[in-house]
Amino acid sequence: MDKVIFKIKRGTPEEWQYVEYEVPVEKGTTILDGLYYIRDNIDHTLSFRASCRMEVCGSCAMMVNNFPRTTCSTQIENVKPDGTKNGIKVIKLEPLSGYPWIRDLVVDFDDFFKKHESVKPYIIRKETPEGQLLQSPEQLAKFKQLTLCIKCGACVAACPISNSDPLYLGPAALAAAYRFNADSRDEGKNKRLAVVSDPEGCWRCHFSAECSEACPKDVDPASAIQKLKVQAAVFEFKRIFTGRKDGEK
Ligand code: SF4
Ligand code: SF4
Questions:
Q1: Closest residue (by CA) to atom 5 of ligand 2?
Q2: What is the distance in A from the centroid of ligand 1 to the CA of 223?
Q3: Domain residue limits at 89
Q4: Does one domain contain both 65 and 147?
Q5: SS3 track for 37-77
C-alpha cells in the first residue's frame, strides 16, 4: 500500500460534508501522520487536536471507521478499510461521537472534564499528613492500571449510555473515582461515593464493556465501574442505617 484515501467529515453542525484526500503511506505511517500531511500539503484549514504524538496527552482521539481511537497510535496498515475507491483503501474519519461537535475533527471536552472534576480525582485526607504517605507494592497494584488513563475520551465515545444520555457521568470519570477510592492513602471515599451513587452515576452502566474495548491504555474502566458499584451499594446501606447523608458511622 503506498497511498490511502481519508474521507473526513468537515464543517460545523450547521453545514458539513465528507471531503476526500489522498495520503501517501509508508510502513508505520499513523492516521495522525496522515492528518498532518493533509494540513501541511493539501489543506491547511483542516482542524484536529493533537500534541504529543506518543499516546500520552490524549488529544488526538477521533472516530476511525466508526470506532474511537487515538490516531497517533493507530497505524494505517492495521486499519480495516471502510471501503475502496479506484482500488485505493478508504478510511473514514469523524469527530468523537457523544461530544458536542465544534468543527471538522474537533469536539468540546468541557463537559468531559467537568464530570471528571466532579468525582474529586485527587487524594483527600482528613488532616494534613506529617511526612510521606507510604504505600506497599501490593497497595499500589490495586489501582496502578487505572493511573494510565490519558483522558482521551475514547471510552465515552464508545459507551452507548454516554451517547444517549448526556447526564451520565461516563466511564472515564467513574474509573477515576474508583482509582482514588482504591488508593490506600485516600480518606475521601464516601465523598466520591455520594457523587457516583447518583442515578446518573455508576448504576446507569450496564457493563457492556465497549469502553474497555476502546481504551488505548488498557485501563479497563468497565470492571472499575463494577467494583465501584459494590462500594456504592455498601455506602447506600450505611446511609440508610445511619441516616447520615455522607454514609459515615
Ligand atoms: S461498561 Fe458501562 S461505561 Fe462501559 S460502555 Fe458499557 S455502559 Fe458504558
Ligand atoms: S479510560 Fe482509557 S479510553 Fe477512557 S479516557 Fe482514560 S485512557 Fe482514554
A1: 151
A2: 9
A3: 3-103
A4: no
A5: HHHHHCCCCCCCCCCCCCCCCCCCEEEECCEEEEHHHCEHH
